[in-house]
């Protein structure tokens, strides 16, 4: 049975703490070990970001273990190395006894070509990003986070602002009111008659935020979103008021929220 030694890597402490990136790599490695009919004899992982691989102490241990066990070094993703030089350096040290799950059973030529293309694409992305940022800066846009900015407070303020915009939006008020009027009162919960509500809203000329005609799906989703804002207990109509307003024309309903 062929022996494998796994090496996994993430770049930041946050990724390491979450375990998600490492866990995903582990699943990939286990799949390919099984597909190859092999045995995973050891597993090493690094949480490291830097200019070279000297700081990846677990990689060195994994390579040493491979030599001791006569095993193959298996890595989930070839992008764990930053560039062609790093990847080919490890390839040479392992004398080709390395298995990339995203490039299985590859030779040195194919590996060199793959990394060269990847580096080229990364360079083009970097150039495009720098050009776009330079254009924004030239247009007077201030880049980066303001000094002293509390990101938690900024996110909270943004959430409050979006919520207030939803409340003040006239179309949202109209959709909410019409869905309230088209509500059937059951024993367990209230369920809006979305087909009826959609017909009324279309007759009223209410559009989506992009100017398209409302659909049953639009109305249903908007209703559930607005319940989080207005609250299921708010704007509740009495049975008499419910029957009276249900008899009003679409134009009269529209005037309620103008």
What does this structure look like?
It is built from 11 helices and 6 strands. The chain has 258 residues and is an alpha/beta fold. The strands form 2 sheets. The protein has a 4-stranded parallel beta sheet with strand order 2-1-3-4, sandwiched between helices.
Approximately how much beta-strand content do the residues carry? 5-15%
Task: State the major sheet.
Answer: 4 strands, parallel
Percent helix, as a range, is 55-70%
Shape: elongated
The number of helical segments is 11
Strand order of the largest sheet: 2-1-3-4
- Written as H for each helix and E for each strand, in order along the chain, the element string is EHHEHEHEHHHEEHHHH
> What ranges have pLDDT less than 50 throughout 5 or more consecutive residues?
186-190, 232-239
Question: Structural class, judged by helices and strands?
Answer: alpha/beta
Radius of gyration: 30 Å
